[in-house]
Amino acid sequence: MSVLTSMNDGLMTVINAVNGVLWGQVLIYMLVGVGVYFTVRLGFIQIRQFKHAVGVLKRGKNSETGISSYQVFCTSMAARVGTGNMAGVAVALTVGGPGAIFWMWVIALFGMATAFVESTLAQVYKVKDVDGQYRGGPAYYMEKGLGQRWMGSLFSVFLIIAFGLVFNAVQANTITDALNHSFGFDETTMGIIIVIASAFFIMGGLTKIARASARIVPVMAVGYLAVAALVVVMNLSELPAALTLIVKSAFGWQEAAAGGVAYTISQAMQSGIARGLFSNEAGMGSAANIAASATPNPNHPASQGFVQMLGVFADTIVICTASAAMIMLSGVMDQPDAASGIGLLQQALTSELGGWTTYFMAAAIILFCFSSIIANYSYAETNIMFLNGNTKKGLFIFRLTVLGMVMFGSVASLPVVWSLADASMGMMALINIVALLLLSKLAFKVIKDYETQLKAGKIPEFDRSKFPELEELDGAWHPETMKEARAKS
Predict the structure, then answer these.
(1) What would the pLDDT profile of 218-242 be if each residue is shown by its tens digit?
(2) FRET pair for 114, CA 20 to 30 Å: which of 104, 268, 356, 397?
(3) What is the largest CA-CA distance in the chain?
(4) In angstroms, rounded to a whole number, what is the distance separating the alpha carbons of residues 285 and 168?
């Protein structure tokens, strides 16, 4: 046993060292850097075209022949919005102070541009699978745009490990742990229920997952924001002071008198940026997998870029801010018995609204985590299809494996597995950033084409003949394929 313990400790040391380098240094700088670069090159498109993006999302609510832009938006939100929006915000506040929230806003602003680029590229290089469903994402644009299938395959493996297997076990563990602590429910029994519910949607494939997400996400988002709004209204007089504190702490003005400005800014920035990136996933290549599936509209690849940048905004600037508001306005952070993680948020709600919020938090955790399970699976399914040449070979076995991991996560907790997932996500993000930079010239050209048509008063439509670099590209944007799609719509 001592040998196994030593091996486990040694593995944890190596993985934690890798994660320390990836998430403590390399990825934060790279993700922030590409976000700033894309923002500048696109002329702050996330601000200029925000109203238009909302209009694109509204127009994409329905699709009789596939998955609509709205359903794609909800699926990506289902994956993005999870315990990170609750526990992650609490950790950011505890470690980095109120200033961390400001830096979460900043990284979300730049991340909107990154999400725009990766989702546009996912649309450009999407293909149809054996069932006529559109598939795409980083693995596809690495193979078809860069001619590097090995790169796409490596990305797929890392994503499957992180999102398809381990993160789903983590989400299941969060649900059963919360229900066990709050109500004493048996973890094994709850695990079986979660597996059955997950199987119902997972076995139905991408379309059923997208339709389920379109129903679950609005309910969980509206409910959560309604409770947050209630807390804000109850403490409306304290809101200006809280906002002022966030800005002052972000730049160390609050701590200037104590002489700890540099350290305070560093902690706030690192904590806020890291938690923001983990929450909205911009640049990691995960949401781009579902972004490629929208059909029959958009009629231009850049349309889905507008939709996905709204996902980053909603995740971090809206939902994470709601969590921060509930914690800060309640004043529980200043109490000597302040909890940590998601317990801090529960403590804040209990102090403001009473004991019934225990049930509300349990419901929020179930919805947030369960929706993440099925959405994360959809990302992994697309990458399984990529590895198998867009066929369903081995897909049933993979689905059973995912359900097995959900059951495993419901009853067990192995820190080494969770750390391995962070390392896998870090590696897939690293690969994706390289691909985004290499393909950014084409992405800028596609987005410029969209905006040019928009300024001319046209409804933007993609004309592949304008892009000689795509002349040999077969897939969704082949003239005959587009003609057939428009006829169906």
Answers:
(1) 888 888 999 999 999 999 888 898 8
(2) 268
(3) 71
(4) 17
